[in-house]
């Protein structure tokens, strides 16, 4: 088999995006930036699960600083905060501020599929 055609077999280099975020009318007001960041957050949950970062029965939490969101999206921190606000309004994450310049704890929530 030709190795040029095997590049897609490295699944660790991909981020999975739930189709429900695109198809479900519930999420029609979130954009591609929100979908990308949510997908990266879910991907990051694997590491948090491994490190046993659990929070008060709400589930696995992650840290995703606003500065890092801005860097990934290539945007300002103001826009990055807006993306996180939109994810919270859509019911896809819970953010808990820790204060004193520390990044918020973020609990990515399960998205609602069309059948739910």
How many helices does DSSP assign? 4
Q: End-to-end distance, in Å? A: 42 Å
Helix content: 25-40%
Rounded mean pLDDT is: 84
Strand order within the widest beta sheet: 3-5-4
Number of domains: 1
Contiguous runs where pLDDT drops below 50 for at least 5 residues? none
Major β-sheet annotation: 3 strands, antiparallel
| Strand coverage percent | 5-15%
**Cα shape:** globular
Describe this structure in words.
- The structure is a single chain.
- The longest helix has 19 residues, at 32-50.
- The N and C termini lie far apart (42 Å).
- The protein has one domain: Arc Repressor Mutant, subunit A.
- The chain contains four helices and five strands, in the order ααβββααββ.
- The strands form two sheets. It has a three-stranded antiparallel β-sheet. The chain has a two-stranded antiparallel sheet with strand order 1-2.
- A hairpin with a 3-residue loop joins β1 (54-55) and β2.
- The chain has 116 residues and is an alpha+beta fold.
- The mean pLDDT is 84.
- The protein is globular, with a radius of gyration of 16 Å.
Secondary-structure topology with pairs:
Layout: H1 20-23, H2 32-50, E1 54-55, E2 59-60, E3 62-63, H3 66-73, H4 77-89, E4 93-96, E5 105-108
Antiparallel strand pairs: 1-2, 3-5, 4-5
Helix pairs in contact: 2-4, 3-4
List keywords for this structure.
alpha+beta; Arc Repressor Mutant, subunit A; three-stranded antiparallel β-sheet; 5 strands
Can you describe this structure in just a few lines?
The chain is an alpha+beta fold and 116 residues long.
């Amino acid at each position: 088999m030709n190795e040029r055609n095997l590049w897609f077999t490295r699944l660790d280099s991909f981020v999975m995006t739930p189709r429900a975020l695109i198809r479900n009318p519930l999420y029609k007001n979130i954009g591609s930036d929100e979908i990308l960041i949510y997908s990266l957050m879910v991907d990051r949950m694997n590491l948090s699960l491994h490190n046993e970062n659990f929070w008060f029965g709400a589930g696995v939490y992650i840290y995703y600083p606003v500065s890092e969101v801005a860097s990934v999206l290539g945007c300002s921190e103001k826009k990055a905060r807006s993306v996180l606000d939109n994810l919270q309004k859509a019911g896809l994450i819970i953010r808990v501020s820790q204060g004193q310049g520390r990044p918020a704890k973020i609990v990515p929530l399960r998205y609602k599929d069309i059948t739910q």
